[in-house]
Structure formats: C-alpha cells, structure tokens
Amino acid sequence: MTNTWQDIKNADVVLVMGGNAAEAHPCGFKWVIEAKIHNHAKLVVVDPRFTRTASVADYYVPIRPGTDIAFLSGAMRYLLEKDAIQHDYVRTYTNAALIVKEGFGFDEGLFSGYSAEKKDYDRSSWDYELGDDGFAKADPSFQHPRCVLNLLKQHVSRYTPEVVERICGTPRDKFLMVCDLFASTAAPDKALTSLFALGWTQHSVGSQNIRSMAMVQLLLGNIGVAGGGMNALRGHSNIQGLTDVGLLSNAMPGYLTLPKDSEPRFADYMKTRQFKPLRAGEVSYWQNYRKFFVSLQKSVYGAAATADNDWAYDWLPKLDVPNYDILRAFEMMNSGQINGYICQGFNPLQAFPNKQKIRTALGKLKWLAVMDPLETETACFWQNHGAKNPSDPSKIQTEVFMLPTTSFAEEDGSLTNSARWVQWHWKAADAPGEARSDIAIMAGLFRRIQAMYRKDGGAFPDPILNLSWDYLDDAHPTPEELAKEINGRTLTDWKDAAGATVLKAGQLLDGFAQLRDDGTTTSGCWIYTGVWTERGNIMGRRDAFDPRDQGLAPNWAFAWPANRRVLYNRASADLEGKPWNPNKPLIAWNGTKWEGIDVPDFVPTSDPKAGVGPFIMQAEGVARLFARDQMREGPFPEHYEPLESPVLNLLHPTVSSNPMARVFDFDRAQFGKVADFPYVGTTYRLTEHFHYWTKHGLMNAILQPEEFAEVGEALAKEKGIGQGDWIKLSSKRGEVICKAYVTKRLKPMMVDGKPCHVIGLPLHWGFTGAALKGFGANTLTPFVGDANTETPEFKAFLVNVEKAPGPVA
Amino acid sequence: MTDLQSLDITRRSATTGTPPDIRHQPAVAKLIDVSRCIGCKACQSACMEWNDLRPEMETFEGSYDNPSDLNPAAWTVMRFTEWENEAGNLEWLIRKDGCMHCSDPGCLKACPSPGAIVQYANGIVDFISENCIGCGYCVKGCPFNIPRISQEDHRAYKCTLCSDRVSVGLEPACVKTCPTGAILFGAKEDMTAWAQERIVDLKERGFANAGLYDPPEVGGTHVMYVLHHADRPSLYAGLPDKPRIDPLVWLWKGMFKPIALAGLGFAAIAGFVHWVVAGPNEVQPEDEVHGREILDHKDEK
Amino acid sequence: MSQPGTISRYTTAQRINHWITAGCFILLALSGMSLFHPSLFFLTDLFGGGPYTRAIHPWFGVVLLVSFAILFVRFFHHNLWNRDDTAWIGKIDKVISNHEEDVPDVGRYNAGQKLVFWSMTLLILVLFVTGIVIWDQYFFGFTSIEVKRVAIAIHSLAAVAIIAVFIAHVYAGIWIRGTMGGMLHGSVTPGWAFRHHRKWLRDLARGR
C-alpha cells in the first residue's frame, strides 16, 4: 500500500477492483465502511462476481476475468478525452511531458523491438530522447507528438466504450458510470483509493493490471495524497515482509537485486543500479544503492567483506536466468533437474497451479523436507486419498521429512502488514510437541552444513564458511538479535556535522540515511533501518495517537521507509508546497522546510521553487505513465487475453495473449481449447478460511465445511444443474467433483455479442484438516506466470462443467 | 445460573407475584446494521468461541449459510439472500439471525417452568438452564423461531446477548469482534438515535425505505436491525414483517389458564354441593328385594 | 355371580384394564397440570422434577392409549346410543335430584355413562394426536411450529375438558353408592342393578 489501512477512510471514492476486500480483508475493510459513513464515500466494485464487497457497495459493475487493462485503458481514454485529469499534477509530477525516443512504436499487439525468434523484446527503444546534457527532453506544452501524454492518448484511443464493452462484457452505461466516478476525483481536493489484491496480480498481465490503475491514479492526481494511492491488500499477514526482506529468487533484502551472469564484476553490477538523475537537479535516490548494498554485505559477511574483495561480491550467486521462481522450480523438479526440496511455510500442492504436475514433480524428488506447523497436503503428497489425491505410495521413492515448526502465535517476531508497518508481536503460547522455531531449524541446518564444508571442503566453501554468525547462542539466534541485525549498526563512532559523537561503534543506527558505502555500517535490509534503535524496539510501539485523525498513527510500530506512512507524500502538495486538499494535508512547505503529520518523502529542506520532482526514487523525479524498460511486455499496458481465453484478442487476434507471459513448453501442451472447455474459471478465497490452513481448525470448518463451485443460474439451467447438486468441473489439466452453488451472483456477460459464463472456484479444500476432503481448485488451473513477477494465472482459465452422478471417494 | 442479580430480574417465567422493580437500568440494545454487514461470520466464530460452542460440522447445501440453521450450539447464524430489486440489480441481503430479546418475550410467556426464562431490567431475555425442563414451549411461544432444544440434554438454548459479559460492563462477543462495526451495542436510546443517522445516509444512497426494525408488536426488541428495505423485512430470509406472539399462545397461556383451573375447581365444588344438597344415591332395601325378585324369576316371561 | 347374592359386573381383567387406565389418567392429569399453571408446578416433584415430568408425561399417555384402546374394544358395544338414552337425558334433572324412579329404565350403561365413555374416547384421541405433535423429543421435525401451536392449544383445551369429564365420572362413582364396589371387586348387588340398570338386570335374568 502506498497509504495506510486507516487512511482509506479519507477517500471520496473507493474502487475495489482486482480484489474482494470485504471477503479477504474483513478487518481492514472497516476503513471502507468508515469512508462511506463519515466521508460519504462511494464504493464501487468491479468484479466478475457479485462479491461480499459488492453486497455493501454503492455500485457493482461486472467484468470478464482478465480484461481489466481494457477497462482501465478505456477509463484513461475517457479521462483524457473529457480532460478530466488533474493538469498541474500530470504536467509536473508525471513523465507526461517527457519525450520518447524516435523508434518507439506499437503495432498489432507488439511494441517496437520484438524478436519472434528470441520471443523477447529488445527494450532499448522504450526510453526518453536524451538531450546533449544527458537529460531527458521534455515538452510541458504537450505539443510534441512523441511526448508521453500524446503517445498515451494515441495508445488508449482504441479503447472506446464500445470496445470496452465488447472485450470486458461490461455494459456500457455501467462502464461510463465508473469513468464518471473516477473523473469526480480529478479535483485537487478529491481522492480515489484503489484497493486490489490477487484479483489483479494472478494474471499473465498482473503487473500491467496494476500499472494501468496506477496510471489512472496519476492522471487523477491521486497518488501521494490522503485517501488516495495504490493499495495492494496483501494476502498474508507477512507477505509484505517476505518481499521486503527479499525472499524471492532474484531479490535481496530491501529491493536490491541479485547479480546476473552477465555481471561478473562488482563494477558491472553497480553500473545498472546506481541510477544517475535523468533530469537536472533530481534526487534519484537509488544513487545510494552502493551504500545499501555494502551495508548488507557487511551484515552478511562481517569482517570478511572488505573493499579489497569488493565487499564479497563474488560470493553472491549470479543468475543465469531471470529468476528461479516457484513455477520454474517445479518445472525443473518435473524434468528431473531439482531433486531435493526444503519447503518452508508453504503448501505448493494446494497453492500452485496444475496440481497433477506439482504432485508428479514432488514424486520425482529424492527428498522433501517440509517445515510447517501443520501436516500439509504437500507433506502428505504421497498418500492415496482416492480421486482427491490419486498418488500411489508404492511407486513414490521420495523421502519426506516433516519438521514441525512453531506458528506465529508461538514465537516472538515481527509481521509487516500491507501498509508497510513492521509490527512486533509477542509469543502467546508454547508450541506443542517437538515443534521448533524456523530460526532454530535454519540455524541447525546452517551449523551442520558449515561443519561439513569445514571438514570436507567443497567446490566453493567461502560463502558458507565466511557467513557472519554472531549470536549469543549459535544454535538459537533470537528474534531480537535478528531484528537488530536487520536494523544495522555503525562499526565506527558516528559523528554529526559538528563533530559530536552521535553513536558509538557497535550501536544501532537510527535510519538508512546513516548508511555508508565504506564498510563502516551494516544493515540487513536498508528499508528496515530504524526498526530497532538505541531507543529500543520501535516495532513494539503501541501508541495510537493520530494527529488530525487522518489515519497515520505515526507512533504505532514502524513503517518503512523511515516511518513514512504515505509514500510519495510530497505529491500531496502543489507546486508551491501547499496541500492540494487543505482539509487533509500530509506535509507542506513552511518557507524553510517541509513539515506536517507525516515524514516527508522528500528532501526536507528542498524548496519547491527548485522544482525537484516528488518521486525521488525515479531517476527522472516524476511518476511514469510510460514505464521505459521496466516492464517486460511494454512501457504502456496493453490488453492481452489470458493464455486460456474463450475469445481471441479483439484488438490484435494474431498476438492474442501476452507474448512475454511465463509459459514452459510442457504446459503449453496442457492448454485447453474453448470448444472443449467453453467457460471461464476463476479462483478465490472465502472469508471463512485462510488459504489451506484454517481448514485444520474445527471452527472454520464448521463455518464453511465443504468444497463447492459457484455456477450462475443461467448456466445451471442450461446444464440442468440444481442447487447443491454434484457437478464435475474439468480443464485440460484435471477434474474436480464438488457441489454446485447455483447463484444469481454470476451472470453471463455479453462478450463481443456472445454470452460468456464464469464459474467460481473457492480454493480452500484439500485432503488434510478438519473440513471435508476436496480436490482443490488448483487441480484445474494453468501453469502460467505473469511476465514480470511469474505470479500464476489463477484468475482466468477455461473449464467445462457438467452434472455429476454423485460424490467420489 | 443467572448472570445478573435477582434484583435485576424483572420477569420470570411461570412465576406469580410482582417482580422486583426497584432498580431502574437503562434498556440496552444490540443494533445490527445490515447495510454495513459483509457476512464474514466473525460474529458466529466469536459466539462459538466465547460460549465454548462447537455445532456439528454440516455439508455444503447451496448457500453460504453454515451452519444451515440455528441449533443448540449455534446461537447466531448468517442468512444470505440473493434478491433482484425492481431496477433489476442484484442485492445480497445478509442478516445475522439470533434471539431478538423482545421486550415482551413470547418464550417467557409460554414457558411453564418457574424461572427457566427471565428478563433482566436492561431488557435481556435469558434462559436459565438449570430450570429448563426441555418442553419446547418457548419454541412455540417465540415469534422469531429462535430457541432450539438440544436432543442431547433436552434443554433450550439461544443467544444470551452475552448477559455474562454485559453484567460486567463488556459488550457481547459478536459486537466486540465485528470487523466493520455492523454490530453495535449500548443503551437502546443511543442505538435508536444512531440508527436514525444511518437511515439518513441510506436514504441519500437511494434506499428510500431504509428504516429501523424494532417491532412494536412485541413491545420493541433489544436486538434491532437497520434495514435498507424496512418496508419489507421478510426479504431478509423471512424476518417477520409483523412479528407477534401467536394468539394461540395467548389462548393457551393467557386467561384460559385461570379460567380453566377455576372451571375444574367449580366442577369439584359442584360435586361437593350436590353431595350436600342431594346426598348420595343409596340403594334402598326394597331395591334389593326387587332386584332379587327379578333374578329369582328369571325363568318367567 | 362371584359371591352369593351379588351380580358380577366386571371381570378381573376388565377391572385391571380400567384401573391401569385410571392410574395413567391420574398420572397424566397430575403431570399435565403441573406444567399447566405455576401454582401447580410443585406437582412435578411427584415425578422427580420438571425434566422428568416433561419426559414421562407422554409415556403415560402411550400406556393410557393402549390400555384405553383395549377398554374401548371391550365396552364400546355396550355404549352405543339408543332412544332410551335420549329419553334418559331428557330426565337428567330427576337423575341429579336422586329421583330415579321417574327415569326410564337403563341398560348396562346409562346415557351419562355413555357420554363419559364417548367423550373420553374422543378426547383421548385428540390428546394423543396433539400430544404426538408436541412430543418434540421424537417428533419435532414432522410438523411446523404453527401446527404445534395449534396442537398445544387444543391439547390444553382437551385436557381441561377431559379432567372435567373425569371429575364427573369420579363423582358419579362416589355419588351412586355401590358403583365403586363394582369396579373394585367386580360385583354389584341386585338392588344396585335394579335401582340403576334395571334393563340390564332383566337381561341378565333372562340370561342374555
């Protein structure tokens, strides 16, 4: 989230699209209700299904799964055509005025630079035209035909309301009504908040879905302001923390990235990361990359990381492929390239697409170690549970180790919520049986592996032997020790400008501004610097004081970065530093510095007259309507059909789906055809359950006991399916036999003149736990990843449905 | 076991005499704002959790209603109704069902067991299990079809409005847990006033018939609803449009009882008076003679 | 003629049958009344408290129904209504004032007794059927609450009625001296028969 949960109450319009906030985030959803009740906000839900969120919405608007970009591009077209944008904001806070290189183009579904042979883009043309000074050229008068705004206008011009209706199946009047609501927040003192979640991410165009909305928000001037923003409601209490500390195969903590094969030297690595400003006077904060990186290496390797060995750069793995995401990992397991798997806090047999492929892949492993508080389906993948898990144990040689772990309630630690609040929590109960904390298990593994390397040597022991392991009890590092390590320390006495010692060597740092690239500071995750300082555990703060009652609560826990509650808050003030919305100011220029109720996301003493852009992380200082080369499938979002779609792309049938989507050949062969699987399937969560673990709780099982699928009344009638009947759902990848929920909440949409039926599949049931056994929706879903994040396309695929004679064992 | 003091009991089932009336407590109410409810069932889990209830796990039967109905261990359930309004737009009406805590409780009226159902001065209607005999009369007395008799222990159960929590100044568990603030608790007066604000908001949003459900037919209730369509409560999974204690209950529990008792007493007294006035009908010696004669001459005729 | 000088009116089996029915009736009345009005709730103590009273009351009813059914089979043909009964009813004031000499001769049962018999039969049926409807322990799911409300109202009305009939029946047994003996030890005197059931006596004398 750019903003906070509580800040939602400041919105004038709440858009829930690409998510189902009431269902998946009932507690946070209270702030939507607050916005409705106390700010007279309008709530709009755009969703294929009439959801629990829709049940309390002012407007519900249907949309075919996987067509959000068409909808939002249509909205952009509308806003630009009606001139319902916040002009000053767009001109000065976005790259609308910057001029794009000659050679950039878009034709028949492909941007310039595509090579059909490599199935990849050369993205060099997706950039600004640079002047002789090395800075990007701009035309604030928007006269230049290749300025971003004009290119954008041209790009979205195809998305007329008619085209939107034909692609999305959204009735035109409802689409236009949403556009009008968007437009109402172009006023400087009005804000729209966008609440989304996996309904946008779990597509082959997931990242571009979100970009589309971010662009809408930029046109409306709704980023950085109270009640605005792009607010990703994270699906797990600590999934924000997971990405923050870099638990992705191509990431390092604090959104630093792992080196590639092509970057054998530290200097090569730094060249593409320490972005120089693209416009005069801009901050381009990533110029500090080296400080964050060196401090991280000092934290990981301690004294062994020196200037002489390039801060142990050689000990980092270098990626030979863009990343080893989970889709790739299972593809490699399935093809015999990975044969051991430590599965920590994850249940891929339920959570990842194409269950049969996952099950087969697990069966090819030599060993599988599962660390989890619960006996998961993954840990039991080898068991036979009839059609619901048709494994044959006699044919599986995988040795499975189950290492019971503590759950979050059985340990101290921190959780980072969607609003980037790093909150400390305290253990509530002892763990049962032989369960150990994940830290203790990892420490045990590390010490044994290190001992083996020490004893036996190995091809490359240095990264393991030199790892810094500086804890009171080697076998049991404490959460407190780790938190302090993540925060970082100074290794020398730290003096302020006047020469006074602020921190002594070894003391904890106050913030990332203190980090240096000379090896005198450490930090395990630069954006988390400040979580545990010499003042104590900042994450443990529980002071709900809220200045102006605007939902910031600055003394509650810690929000990264720098305890900032609203990202890009400089953009909440106009060119002179006055808040766009005087009733809900965040920060303002007082003549000498920026001040307000939030920590300025800006240089605190930077006079607005200097014209420095508010988006200081960007080299150009402004937000990007044109993404340059940062997105794999194009600098502007373009509507691509899901890999399995009932129709071809109306705009460019020859390039129907995202050309950059992650698809392996094995899986391409497992795509179904519309003739065999005529309906659109989509998966989702229900409030009563959290993914695959609450079904182990009797109370949750009581509240939603049995697997079912939602089928619209019209389709049910056509297929002779009655309420609660047994049905068989099938895709090219498998079958699910479950009960039917025949509902008015799913209506066929008219897509290019033909009805499109959507079938909804809640995803919770498996073969372990207290609830009744089920197949799991991932039996049906395709093994397709988003082009940028490799997130699987769970939200749009093809299925068939027919009445089933009865349950199966 | 009563959760409040006997002093607080203003009505007691099957009990004659005048209840204590010296203490005046403000009436409380739970306000369920249906327009804010997202049907998350947190109230159901909170109810199970606080009251240590675990109803039997059922199966999926074509709606999100689970458990499918109130039962002895499910004192509140969400009822989901898909309804297409006149404009052709779908509304998903979600209502938390449970005891309404009537000011004039039909269950208490019907209950034959002294002290099995009580009403406290604050309006809460509570079942006192130790006095419950499991006859099920409360089920027949209730205008809202709420109480359920356990087939295990043969006692009646329903929402207590967390009288145990309320007695120590806490709000009911469902209120505490409701994530969207759709369930509120406080003085009935305050709840009614707050409901009016909500109704104004709903009317502004196009629900012309928004209103408060506090049916006067049962003297008002201590659980009230804000409804978008207060003109048609029955849209909400059959919430009674005009709930009332059935006249048959009045027939059987009202004046009929003393009249019937008096009638039976009168019959007994009539017999006694007849005995005194007319006396017993004794067989006379001549009857014996005649009788014997008939028997002895049985061969005649 | 069990004893010299007396007439047998009821066999042992008939008497046992009657008294089982009567006993059940009294138990039903006591347990039913205890739940009928707060002032009588103390009667539940006779049955081990409220829950036991609630549980056992319908079982008394079942026993009574079976017992009464047998009784009915035994006696219904004696209780068929005829013209004499109508005439007898017309002279009910004479009966009440102990002037039976002015009343038509009566067979085995007089019209009053027949009325008791048939009202008992009818009311027991009504009570049994309505009782089943409200016997929630076994039959809750079979009827709606609306039906149960009707049933419970009818059940209580019928109960009051049957108790009134019962009072009349018992009082008649006390009032008409010698009657009780008939049901206690089975025999009545010829004088009793002559005075109250002269036709029956004559029929007996004729060996019919």
Write the layout of secondary structure elements.
The complex is a heterotrimer of chains A (809), B (301) and C (208).
Chain A: E1 13-17, H1 21-24, H2 30-39, E2 42-46, E3 59-61, H3 68-81, H4 87-93, E4 106-107, E5 110-111, E6 114-115, E7 120-121, H5 148-156, H6 161-168, H7 172-184, E8 192-196, H8 198-201, H9 206-220, E9 230-232, H10 239-244, E10 251-252, E11 256-257, H11 266-271, H12 289-301, H13 326-334, E12 340-344, H14 348-351, H15 355-363, E13 367-372, E14 399-404, E15 413-416, E16 421-425, H16 438-456, H17 462-465, H18 479-487, E17 494-495, E18 501-503, E19 532-533, E20 536-537, E21 558-559, E22 587-589, E23 594-596, E24 662-663, H19 665-668, E25 679-684, H20 698-703, E26 708-712, H21 713-719, E27 726-731, E28 734-743, E29 749-751, E30 754-756, E31 758-762, E32 784-785, E33 797-803
Chain B: E1 9-12, E2 28-33, H1 42-51, E3 77-84, E4 90-97, H2 106-110, E5 117-120, E6 125-127, H3 137-141, E7 148-149, E8 156-157, H4 163-166, H5 173-177, E9 183-187, H6 188-204, E10 211-213, E11 223-227, H7 247-253, H8 256-277, H9 285-296
Parallel strand pairs in B: 2-11
Antiparallel strand pairs in B: 1-5, 2-9, 3-4, 5-6, 7-8, 10-11
Chain C: E1 7-8, H1 12-34, H2 50-75, H3 83-90, H4 92-96, H5 111-133, H6 136-139, H7 145-175, H8 179-185, E2 187-188, H9 190-196, H10 198-205
Antiparallel strand pairs in C: 1-2
Kindly describe this structure.
- With 809 residues, chain A is α/β, with parallel strands linked by helices.
- Chain A contains 21 helices and 33 strands.
- In chain A, the strands form 12 sheets. A 6-stranded mixed β-barrel of chain A has the order 25-31-26-28-27-33. A 5-stranded parallel β-sheet of chain A has the order 3-2-1-8-9.
- In chain A, strand 6 (114-115) and strand 7 (120-121) form a beta hairpin.
- In chain A, helix 3 packs across helix 7 (172-184), helix 3 (68-81) runs parallel beside helix 9 and helix 13 crosses helix 15 (355-363).
- Chain A is globular.
- The mean pLDDT of chain A is 97.
- Chain B has 2 domains: 6-246, Alpha-Beta Plaits (2-Layer Sandwich), CATH 3.30.70; 256-296, no CATH class.
- Chain B starts with 8 loop residues before the first strand and ends in a 5-residue tail after the last helix.
- Chain B is an alpha+beta fold and 301 residues long.
- Chain C is mainly alpha-helical.
- Chain C has a single domain, classed as Fumarate Reductase Cytochrome B subunit (Up-down Bundle).
- Chain C contains 10 helices and 2 strands.
- Chain C has helices spanning 12-34, 50-75, 83-90, 92-96, 111-133, 136-139, 145-175, 179-185, 190-196, 198-205, and strands at 7-8, 187-188.
- Chains in contact: A-B, B-C.
- The interface between A and B is large, with 44 and 41 residues.
